[in-house]
Structures are given as structure tokens and as C-alpha cells.
Amino acid sequence: MVAGWVIAEPAAQANEYSCGHAAAANGYVNSTKYLWQVEQDCAVAYKIAYPGGLTTHEQAVAAVAAAEQYLRSLGYDAATVERMDIAGHGT
After folding, report:
1. Which of 4, 17, 18, 51 has its Cα between 20 and 30 A from that of 27?
2. What is the largest CA-CA distance in the chain?
3. pLDDT score at 4
4. What is the pLDDT of residues 38-60, one digit of tens each?
5. Closest CA to 6 of 50, 48, 38
């Protein structure tokens, strides 16, 4: 018997919503950036984190790290990225 990792994509719409609201709670929704734009950033991050075809824990960890780096590259600080919870830990 061969055991393998199955990396499941979280319910994207709900997670993008909570991701966006985490950013809003940290002040990223303002006169220069609207909630829909933040949610769009979250949607892209989820596509990076859950591209499909991941079969190992290491691949999943690397994909989530890449998604978090993407968000940081857009100017979100590390604490906000953690609250956005791309990995789906429910923090």
C-alpha cells in the first residue's frame, strides 16, 4: 500500500472573504485600496497556494510560502499576511 498526501484546496470564496477582511482590519482598505482589490489579491494568493497537483507536504508548504511572499511583495506586512491565513489554519 502506498500512502500519499492529498492537498485539498480550501473553500476559496469564504477564505478570500476572510483574507480580505483580515487585511481590512489591519488598515489596508482605505482611500487608495478598496476591499474588492484586497480580495482580488487574496484570490491570486490562493491560486498560488493551491495550484492543483500538489502531492507532498513539502510542495504544499512551499506553495503557501510563495503565496505569502506574493502578498508581502504587494506591500502587506508580515503580521497582516499571517492574519490573512492563506495556509488555512484558522488564525
Report:
1. 51
2. 56
3. 45
4. 999 999 999 999 999 999 999 99
5. 50
Cell of 27: 488598515
The Cα 78–Cα 88 span in angstroms is 16
Q: How far is CA 21 from CA 52, 73, 80, in A?
A: 25, 19, 10
List own/partner pairs for 69-77 with CB under 8 A and 24 or more apart. Answer: 70/44, 70/45, 71/41, 71/42, 71/45, 74/41, 76/23, 76/28, 76/41, 77/26
Lookup: cell for 55: 502531492
3-state secondary structure of 63: helix
Q: Which amino acid is at 63?
A: A
One-letter identity of residue 13: Q
Query: For residue 43, with 0-12 CB atoms within 10 Å meaning exposed, 13-18 middle and 19 or more buried, which class applies?
Result: middle
Single-letter amino acid, residue 5:
W
